[in-house]
């Protein structure tokens, strides 16, 4: 291995350590308490080393949130592929989204700015819209199959996304006084009623 390759590999290794340390610190102390100094201490390097790899904390958060969106998309596609009808696909996609949110709470909070500023300032349009796009596709196919007004697919799918994201947000921000079973039941009933209404 040449000197250039060795330096490149070392650079990538440090970059990965920074991201891993930041995510680990967030899981322990929350995103609000994360700082460049804490990340530097965790990887046992000085703060300037962190700045050599990332412009600022926002850049680190953006990178982690993009990774979160990629992980989410993998789960959504996996759920979709298990079913053939748009109704079953829609139900499975929403379930996968719900499960991802609560199994990966730190990712979800960062991705959508729950209890904090959303990372990326609108720069991750493509990643952000993946779930909405999949909901729209299923909604459109159900409407087409039923012979309903296809023009309503956009509005209807946005309404479902808002309901799902709203339930998750409420659950995450007030999880001490709202039973998880109640929210999951509400989610299931919402999806079922949505499909019937198309």
UniProtKB/TrEMBL annotation:
<dbReference type="InterPro" id="IPR001647">
    <property type="entry name" value="HTH_TetR"/>
</dbReference>
<dbReference type="InterPro" id="IPR050624">
    <property type="entry name" value="HTH-type_Tx_Regulator"/>
</dbReference>
<keyword id="KW-0804">Transcription</keyword>
<keyword id="KW-0805">Transcription regulation</keyword>
<dbReference type="InterPro" id="IPR036271">
    <property type="entry name" value="Tet_transcr_reg_TetR-rel_C_sf"/>
</dbReference>
<feature type="DNA-binding region" description="H-T-H motif">
    <location>
        <begin position="35"/>
        <end position="54"/>
    </location>
</feature>
<feature type="domain" description="HTH tetR-type">
    <location>
        <begin position="12"/>
        <end position="72"/>
    </location>
</feature>
<dbReference type="InterPro" id="IPR009057">
    <property type="entry name" value="Homeodomain-like_sf"/>
</dbReference>
<protein>
    <submittedName>
        <fullName>TetR/AcrR family transcriptional regulator</fullName>
    </submittedName>
</protein>
<dbReference type="InterPro" id="IPR025996">
    <property type="entry name" value="MT1864/Rv1816-like_C"/>
</dbReference>
<dbReference type="Pfam" id="PF00440">
    <property type="entry name" value="TetR_N"/>
</dbReference>
<dbReference type="Pfam" id="PF13305">
    <property type="entry name" value="TetR_C_33"/>
</dbReference>
<keyword id="KW-0238">DNA-binding</keyword>
């Amino acid at each position: 291995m040449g000197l250039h390759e060795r330096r490149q590999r070392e650079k990538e290794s440090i970059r990965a350590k920074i991201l891993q340390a930041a995510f680990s610190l967030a899981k322990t102390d929350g995103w609000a308490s994360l700082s460049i100094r804490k990340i530097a201490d965790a990887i046992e390097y000085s703060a300037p080393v962190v700045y050599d790899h990332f412009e600022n904390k926002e850049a680190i958060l953006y990178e982690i949130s993009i990774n979160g969106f990629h992980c989410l998309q993998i789960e959504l596609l996996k759920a979709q592929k298990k079913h053939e009808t748009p109704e079953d696909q829609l139900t499975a996609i929403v379930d996968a989204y719900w499960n991802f949110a609560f199994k990966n709470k730190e990712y979800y909070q960062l991705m959508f700015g729950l209890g904090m500023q959303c990372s990326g300032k609108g720069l991750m349009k493509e990643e952000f819209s993946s779930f909405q796009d999949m909901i729209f596709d299923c909604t459109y196919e159900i409407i087409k199959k039923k012979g309903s007004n296809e023009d309503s697919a956009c509005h209807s799918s946005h309404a479902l996304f808002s309901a799902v994201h709203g339930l998750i947000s409420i659950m995450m921000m007030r999880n001490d006084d709202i039973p998880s079973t109640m929210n999951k039941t509400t989610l299931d009933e919402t999806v079922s009623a949505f499909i019937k209404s198309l």
